[in-house]
Amino acid sequence: MSEEILINISPLETRVGVLENGMLQEVYIERSGKRGLVGNIYKGKVLRVLPGMQAAFVDVGLERSAFIHTADIVSLNEEGIEEREKNTDDICQVLKEGESIIAQVTKDPIGTKGARLTTHLSLPSRYLVYMPRTQHIGISQRIECEEERERLHRLVRECVAAEGLEGNAGFIIRTVAEGVGKEEISSDLRFLKRLWDSVQERIVSAKAPASIYEELPLYLRSMRDFIRPGLEKVRVDSQESFLKLQSFVDSYVPELEGRVELYQGERPIFDLYNVEDEIQKALGRKVPLKSGGYLIFDQTEAMTTIDINTGAFVGHRNLEETIFKTNLEATSAIGRQLRLRNIGGIIIIDFIDMLDQEHQRQVMRMLEKVLERDHAKTNIIGMSELGLVEMTRKRTRESLQQVVCETCPECDGRGSVKTAETVCYEVLREILRQARAYSDSSRSFLVLASQAVAERLLDEDSSSLADLETFINRSVAVQMEPMYAQEEFDVVFR
After folding, report:
1. Which residues contact 56 (CB under 8 A, 6 or more apart)?
2. Which of 175, 354, 398, 473 would staple 140 via disulfide (CB 3.0–4.6 Å)?
3. Which residues contact 371 (CB under 8 A, 6 or more apart)?
4. Do the beta carbons of residue 389 and residue 395 sit within 8 Å?
């Protein structure tokens, strides 16, 4: 499978698109005024301890207070090493209002919620994740070969001993470390050790609330985190960023040498590769399938539901086969859409009911397979008796919709507006209400409304308006206001 990374940089935002076989699979957006916070380390001040929630609010210098749960607070021994077995469930025993705390962001602020924090600190590099307060050496589950896992474990232990870190630091071996040698691991380890030393110096000198360590900008982070076997090209459309990428690649990702290109074409890079159109489609509810079926995505604060429909697909053999093929095609599309839309949290998939147990098993196997390439951790609970599949996808940052959209000012997030007919009846009731409240019959009424409502009052509902005028013994004029939304109207005296 061939993979490309496209990087579009402007003064106000950076966008990264990950393409597989020419098709957009993931998109990341970082705006200069609202950079992602995941991975940042802060020296914060405890504002409020909440025993009822076993959590606390912490001021880390952001717009909204951050949040930390007692499960994310790790006890340290005298040597500064984590002792997870000594963790307490009582937040009041570990935090006091007004004290300082060193914590790292694990989730960006989402909606009205502040950032989520942990005291389990980690610093990522190309091949390793450094955990300065542990003694554990772990390895990515995506490295499946047992011999390679043992080789990497042994190699990291040797490098840790050579650097004098044995017993004082822990590491997680990342997926991209598969196949690398001692030189690369040692270089990574020395870089992380220097980085942690600088972080410690900042911890001592900084006064809460303060930023201790900030993650790399998106375009450099993509070189560290998104590189996988099969990557053919990285194309960036900014000369300045291209030079920085080249320097970063030379130092940390030498295997990419010659694959980073500066795009200087006349057409915008995202237009050339059809990325803009794919982003626009990913903001819609409906996702068409090639067979004629379609998916419906509904995102709510509690969960996301995905409904599968056969649509215009009528199949060739029988109903069960038609349903099975639609579900299989939908499964592949769902895997891509979850990555592209960056949907996290609880996800409910409503597959079309399948009577054949083997068909159900094949659909579930396909779902597991398409989620294997997902950067985010996923967990499939299984298929219920109603044909619903429950799953979770780890949410660390806002979804695509949350990044680029806001609540509709007309419907206030309902997803629908009142019909012109409904608004007309509200207008008639408001006129009657005001006529009863103000008995001065010498004054007439003026209705200000949107075009659709005004036209209906003067056409289909004109007889009802005339009857009302007779009943209240006052005239009512209607005036169209082009700037009014459909639900907006005013009834005034004149």
Report:
1. 46, 47, 48, 49, 50, 67, 68, 91, 95
2. 175
3. 335, 338, 378, 380
4. no
3-state DSSP helix/strand/coil % of the chain, to nearest 5: 35, 25, 40
Contact indicator for 339, 332 with CB cutoff of 8 Å: no
> pLDDT tens digit string along 121-131?
999 988 899 99
The tens digit of pLDDT for each residue in 49-67 reads: 999 899 999 999 988 999 9
Three-state DSSP at 456 gives helix
Q: Which helix (H) or strand (E) holds 330?
A: helix 319-341
Question: Rounded to the nearest 10 degrees, how much is the dihedral formed by the CA atoms of 128, 132, 133, 135?
Answer: 50
Task: Concatenate the DSSP letters of all residues of 474-487 into one string.
Answer: S-EEEEE-TTS-TT
- Amino acid 371 reads L
Whether the pLDDT of residue 312 is over 60: the answer is yes
* 185-222 pLDDT, tens digit each: 888 888 888 888 899 999 999 998 999 999 989 998 88
Which DSSP string do the residues of 301-329 spell out, in sequence order?
Answer: SSEEEEEEE-TT---SS-HHHHHHHHHHH
- The answer to whether residues 465 and 457 touch, using CB atoms and an 8 Å cutoff, is yes
- SS3 (DSSP) at 13: strand
Tens of pLDDT, residues 20-55: 988 999 999 998 877 889 999 999 999 999 998 999
Q: Locate tokens 């375009």: which residue?
A: 219
Q: Considering only CA atoms, which of 110, 108, 103 is closest in space to residue 68?
A: 103
**In this predicted model, what pLDDT tens digit does every residue of 330-379 receive, in sequence order?**
999 999 999 999 999 999 999 988 888 898 899 999 999 999 888 888 99
* 14: its two tokens: 């950076």
| Cα separations in angstroms, 447 against 110, 429, 431 | 41, 12, 9
Structure tokens at 96: 């006091």
Instruction: Give the DSSP letter of residue 146.
Output: H
Within 10 Å of residue 18's Cβ, how many Cβ atoms? Answer: 21
